[in-house]
Amino acid sequence: MEEARRITPPLDRERDMPILNVNGTSHDVVAEPETPLLWVLREQIGLTGTKYGCGIAACGACTVHIGGIPTRSCQVQLQDIAEGEEIVTIEGLSPDRSHPVQQAWVELDVPQCGYCQSGQIMAAVALLRDIPEPTDEDIRAAMSNLCRCGTYNRIRDGIKRAAELS
Amino acid sequence: MTEQFNLSRRGFIASVAASTGGLALGFPLGATAQQLAELAEPEINAWVVVQPDNTVVVRVAKIEMGQGTLTGLAQLVAEELDADWENVTWSYPTPGENVARERVWGSFGTFGSQGIRASQELVRQGGAAARAMLLQAAANRWGVGVDEVTVERGVISGPGGQTLTYGDVAEDAAALDVPENVPVKDPSTWTIAGQSLLRLDTADKTDGSRVYSIDYTMDGMVNAAIRQCPVQGGTVASFDASTAETMPGVMRVLQVDDSTVAVVADTWWRAKTALDAVEIEWDIPEENAGFNTAQFEEMMREGLDAEDAFVGNQAGDVAGALDGAAQVVEATYAFPWQHHVTMEPMNATALVTDDSCTVWTSTQNAESDLAAASQASGLEIAQCDVHRMNLGGGFGRRGASSTDYTTHAVKIAMAMKGTPVKVIWSREEDMLHGTYHPSTMARFRGALDEEGNLTGMHMRISGQSIFAGLMPFALQDGMDPLVFQGLQAESTEGEFGYTVPNLLIDHAMRNPPLRPGFWRGVNNNQNSFYLESFMDELADAAGRDPLEFRRSLMQNHPKHLAVLDTVAEAIGWDAGAPEGRAYGLCQHMGYGSYVAAAAEVSVDGDTVKIHRIVAATDPGHVVNPQQVEAQIEGSFAMGLSAAMVSEITMENGQVQEENFDTYPIMTMWEMPEVESHIVPSGDFWGGVGEPTIFVAAPAVLNAVARLTGQRVRELPLYKSGLRLG
Ligand code: FES
Ligand code: FES
Fold first, then answer.
1. Calpha distance B629→B53 (Å, rounded)
2. How far is the CA of B369 from the centre of ligand 2 (A)?
3. Are B359 and B492 within one domain?
4. B104 and B225, same structural domain?
5. Please, how many CA atoms are within 13 Å of residue B236, restricted to the half-sphere of its CB?
6. Does residue A36's CB lie within 6 angstroms of at least one atom of ligand 2?
7. CATH code for the domain in which residue B16 is found
8. Using a CB-CB distance cutoff of 8 angstroms, which residues of chain B are in contact with residue A158?
């Protein structure tokens, strides 16, 4: 077995260090400009609530809000983000799980494994902002995030419950 | 119970909290040893820790992966304990501790829908014993007989009205010997178990704070991305890392084993980016290099007529029945490979030193990861341990015999001793290296007499065996008995639900170069699709109603029949479907439970719409009805995905689907209304995590056939020119 090498993470300080506004806090970020926001959030800023599921915009596990718009963060490169643009992740939704969607999720035991739920919740919050009292059809049309555990019906019920709580 | 317990302090107290890193309890990783030690005591017995503030920590041996087992097991312990549910929390012991304590917690393996049923006796007795000890401690304190004390919600009352809480007497109780064979409660008296309580583990899934294995991080941790040979049996011939080694953050490019190359970098994204720049030449065995789906289908078709086959269920004389039949009905079905696609891709973190190997991973069977860690590191089991992290889905992919990701992490960590290494498989890597749902075909020949009665049936299964591909040691004289799930005579696990006087169910084993695995529902999925579709085809040929036809064959199988009757009544079978729609139904038994489903569908052009699906489940006992409902809903989503939209194919020995764009799964748009009927009959314990998945496809496809006359015999749906809408 080879000897262990001394590891010093060689972050490249020469490159641009954009400042990201995430959940109301500014973060210096050291990463290549092509790095997806998803991995910047997870690995540079340490916000691991935003999940990696596919990396190709197909699953929605990485959904965050950029300027209020639900966005699949695996598809947004660091260089695409304007300085100061407001990024909100699941961790920034409320300080104490008090957002109506979070409350509804707990009340109805929506999650199973929970892995997709950060993305589901961020998508649901955006939907409720656009349509405060969505019908079943509105919900089915708007919620394209995948859930392998199959919590879709409870997600739908959770969104309707959140609408009541809002 | 009046006997006095021995007051000598038992041998040792496990440092469970320390070994779980405090994580399972939701404590920060920075918790001090002092804090953790406080959490660990006092241990009443292996299953129960009561802290001075009355917090009851239930030790959970099985793993939670979304299926609700954690909450269910805690309910069972709390029930026997007469604890206050508000004070109940949990922790996961490690497999290393289990080994050190002579497997006091039994098996950690969480699969086969066994989470509750296989451990209910052990955990209930654990709870009952702890209750007896706590009551005895209070009785001793007061100097009264234990039969003079009572307990309600964790508060013990004495004959003079005095009270003590569990927390007050926990330390005394911990010093008593653990009594054996304490009787457990009659389920009819349950107040905590059996109730639709909310899960214990929901809150942190709503704010991003839950730490899954993929989220785990440690000081000084580095990240690895890997690439394995995309063709089974292929090896690394050479690789050129010259570009990758110069890329930002890259620390190492190394060959991990015969068929795997890894890049280690400071971040995973950088490791993955650099991995894409590594040029790898593979040595691919010739026999696998050209293998494709069509070739496997040919092999399976040949098997449909082959002389040699393993017999799974046999009665009477099928050949005679077919010869003497008024009508012989014949049909052939096929089920494709499937991938688990757990939303969290495979990953593990390992730290290896000269004398220790520690792994943090999401696993359904930490004991096999412990063995894998020991094997890969060359260290003794006692020098290794595995910390069980939260799973972003399991479905069988993270079960026994699938410890590949743990092995990778340990091997890479061995090359970097003292540095924790996290390996994450990209989704593409994950999909190309699954343990795939086996693919099989089945051909039926059914003999009907003049009156349309089924007098004989031959079901020939041809195709892949999980045991042969994944764990050949489990074969029995070459036969894989698991192939016959749900088709066996007189089985408490999955009994064939019909009485057919002349019956033969056999299997011609044909194996492709694609690693199979246990995929939620396992072989029940295709077996139920085959059999329950053919039952409708037989009924059609006999000119009989599919429900009535089944009922006539099910009189010796009252529990199978009861769930079928339940869904028929619930959907309104006798009244018939509304205009433009049709109903379809089916039943199957597996994992010890009886399940049935009835679906309501419409078809518009090529688009199948599932409006609602009604399920009935008889799992014997129910620990948390609303979680059983959640499992029923989830099972439909997964079962219908496999039947309607998902398929793994192979070209040139390589899986063709690499992500959700080519391996779609069901979305909310397609998800039907689900109505669950939970009808426990009480004298057995069956599973609930998987069974409903078997009855998803046939209920829908039987309805499609009744509506359109078109019989879907090959999955997924597009092969019949249909799609799900
Ligand atoms: S990880 Fe971004 S959509 Fe799947
Ligand atoms: S809750 Fe498990 S993937 Fe959605």
1. 34
2. 24
3. no
4. no
5. 18
6. no
7. 3.30.365.10
8. none
